[in-house]
Design a protein that fits this description.
Elements (H helix, E strand, L loop, with lengths): L1 E3 L17 E7 L5 H11 L8 E6 L2 E7 L16 E4 H12 L11 H16 L4 H20 L7 H13 L6 E5 L3 H12 L3 E5 L3 H10 L3 E2 L13 E6 L9 H9 L3 E4 L8 H7 L3 E2 L1 H4 L6 E3 H52 L5 H27 L5 H9 L2 H5 L1
Parallel strand pairs: 6-7, 6-9, 7-8, 9-10, 10-11
Antiparallel strand pairs: 1-12, 2-4, 2-5, 3-4
Helix pairs in contact: 2-4, 2-11, 3-4, 4-11, 5-6, 11-12
The chain binds NADP nicotinamide-adenine-dinucleotide phosphate.
NADP nicotinamide-adenine-dinucleotide phosphate binds next to helix 6.
């Protein structure tokens, strides 16, 4: 018996109405096309160092997480059509699911975890980051790491999905050749994934030396990209494009691709393949957004259950941290109030016992400190674990903290 992991009910995370702290603006491939996502990402770049903004950008999503404060607001660029805003609990739950690979086309893929880790590291290197966002990212990364361990060692990526798509159109690729355009991280994943399946690999890249290095790794060959290239591409059964800039194949070779039977999967965002080539290829062209809609993997029920527990725990942990943070001023005020009582009482006692010798005075003072610390220990611990804020309100009333302030 297997279960679709997307069916894991995120509503099971009990975050018990924490205060409004966070908004996530989510533009993903299922509702916002690549070009609009990338344009939004460019606009968000102006906020790259804003302490209250964290941008997560992957090939299938551009997301802005914004921490709120009562006194101030962050002006975000207008979100593209199709984007959605998630508040507080929903935003937390969403990033945890993204990090766990539950929102990915390839269920449990680990590239997304790497991308969040890099986004956080870059953001922290750029300047101070609001602790709410820092903690959120840490909790999500931790959950993501645990979730990926549950998915097992089989490391599937979008490159594997690309190979699946080509095979679906042209039949088994074993023993045939695939052209990989791009020798960066994604090109390398595609080439290595193909080699693992017994597919022959040809590599084309803007920088020839990188193409050669990758081709050597997978015992493939290098082919040129330019108009003067003469390499034979007639036997290429499929092309995987993964470049951070436009792919400009020469027109003659393109015609041969279109006239032949090769399929092209472009993993780049924004799309690197020329629009007219994509159109001429028709159903033999698959873009990055098309991959977002491919059938979801299924996982065994027990793994689905464990991931449900894990995402629940991660959400709850974050919420507890948030509550403790909110409770901190109350803790400080409680300590301040009790300390001022202790000092006042001690002074009164010492005034009434003027002949007390220094050693006895010291002992009395130490005892007063101990007494206060002992009495405060319970409330302190409870407040740090106060999920719904009830205890905090009770402490404020019982100890008259609001009156003290007034
Ligand atoms: N990394 C992922 O997890 C992932 C997942 C899905 C999709 N993607 C998409 O795949 C694409 C490549 O990502 P990556 O992670 O592999 O990046 P990367 O490691 O930085 O590699 C970039 C590749 O693009 C080539 N390139 C850069 N600018 C170019 C230009 N102006 N014209 C032609 N080629 C150019 C580079 O060639 P040189 O060697 O000459 O620099 C290199 O082969 C991106 O569009 C990305 O959004 C990435």
């Amino acid at each position: 018996m297997t279960a679709v992991i997307s069916a894991v009910e995120p509503g099971t995370i009990d975050l018990s109405a924490p205060p409004r702290t966070l908004t996530a603006v989510v533009a993903d491939a299922r509702s916002v096309p690549s070009a609009r996502r990338e344009a939004y990402a460019e606009q968000l770049a102006a906020l790259a160092e804003h302490p209250r903004v964290l941008v997560v950008r992957t090939c299938h999503r551009v997301e802005a997480y914004v921490a709120h404060h009562d006194d101030d607001r962050v002006d975000l660029p207008v979100a593209p059509d199709g984007a959605r805003a998630l508040e507080d609990v929903e935003a937390v739950r969403h990033l945890i699911r993204v990090a766990c690979g539950l929102e990915s086309a390839v269920l449990g893929e680990d590239q997304v975890l790497h991308q969040i880790r890099v986004a956080l590291a870059r953001r922290q290197a750029a300047g101070p980051l609001d602790p709410v966002l820092g903690r959120l990212a840490q909790v999500a990364l931790h959950a993501g790491k645990q979730a990926h361990a549950l998915f097992g060692n089989e490391r599937r990526s979008l490159a594997d999905l690309a190979l699946d798509e080509i095979e679906r159109r042209t039949g088994s690729l074993t023993g045939r050749e695939v052209l990989v355009v791009g020798a960066g991280s994604m090109g390398s994943l595609a080439a290595r994934g193909a080699a693992r399946r017994g597919i022959r690999v040809a590599v084309a890249n803007r920088t020839p030396a990188r193409a050669s290095a990758l081709a050597r790794l997978v015992e493939g060959r290098v082919v040129g990209l330019g108009a003067d290239a003469t390499d034979d591409l007639d036997d290429v059964a499929g092309v995987i494009v993964a470049t951070s800039g436009p792919w400009r194949p020469d027109p003659y070779r393109v015609r041969r691709l279109v006239d032949g039977w090769a399929s092209v999967v472009d993993l780049s965002s924004p799309q690197a393949t020329p629009a007219d080539l994509a159109e001429d290829l028709g159903r033999r062209f698959v873009g990055i957004d098309d991959l977002a809609w491919t059938t979801r993997d299924v996982v065994p029920d027990d793994v689905a259950d464990e991931i449900d527990v894990l995402t629940h725990a991660a959400g709850t942990e974050y919420c507890h941290w948030l509550r403790a943070r909110v409770a901190t001023p109350t803790l400080a005020r409680l300590a301040e109030s009790v300390e001022s009582r202790r000092t006042a009482e001690l002074e009164r006692l010492l005034r009434r016992l003027p002949d007390l010798d220094p050693r006895a005075r010291e002992l009395v003072e130490t005892m007063s400190h101990r007494l206060v610390a002992g009495i405060l220990h319970g409330p302190r611990t409870a407040l740090r674990d106060d999920a719904d804020g009830d205890l905090e309100r009770a402490v404020r009333t019982l100890f008259g903290l609001d009156e003290d302030r007034a």
